[in-house]
Fold this sequence. Notes:
The protein has helices at residues 9-14, 51-59, 72-83, 113-142, 144-149, 160-166, 173-177, and strands at residues 41-45, 64-68, 94-97, 100-103, 152-153, 156-157, 170-171, 197-201, 208-212. By secondary structure, it is α/β, with parallel strands linked by helices. It starts with 8 loop residues before the first helix and ends with a strand.
Amino acid sequence: xxxxxxxxxxxxxxxxxxxxxxxxxxxxxxxxxxxxxxxxxxxxxxxxxxxxxxxxxxxxxxxxxxxxxxxxxxxxxxxxxxxxxxxxxxxxxxxxxxxxxxxxxxxxxxxxxxxxxxxxxxxxxxxxxxxxxxxxxxxxxxxxxxxxxxxxxxxxxxxxxxxxxxxxxxxxxxxxxxxxxxxxxxxxxxxxxxxxxxxxxxxxxxxxxxxxx
Length: 213
């Protein structure tokens, strides 16, 4: 999904009481940041626009919640959604605040739990088995979507959009995997965001050479 640049996002997030401005200093001390630190702690990695975590928080206020994402373009949407969220039901699922449609029905797949589990397994199991049976290198040769979904491989950042957002150098996944010389299944672009620099990772010795793109 392509997200438009939101020039107001950074300042609005910095002004929010519940936005963590310096997360690295709170390692091992997250519970102490909540009004009720004794409550269970729920972490969502890649919270996106906050849809799931806001629904979960409404349905289970007995927990403390922390959502993490790498870009303020979606965190600002999550922040606004969380500020105005309240639990809803299937009978009356939606409401609008400030032009934003809220749908806060908790655990939507749980309404059809068996069907949801079967559908999820039907989609994910072949992908998991492909990786287990063929290994990551062969899977990425045969299927370009695996290759473009790869974010980190053996400590190397292999995703261009993440490189651009975090300002860290990246390695093309074909080089990190050591499969540049193979006939590869075509892969779509990971995103429209381009990084300004990358590392060329030599397959023979792993020597790093930085380039500008």
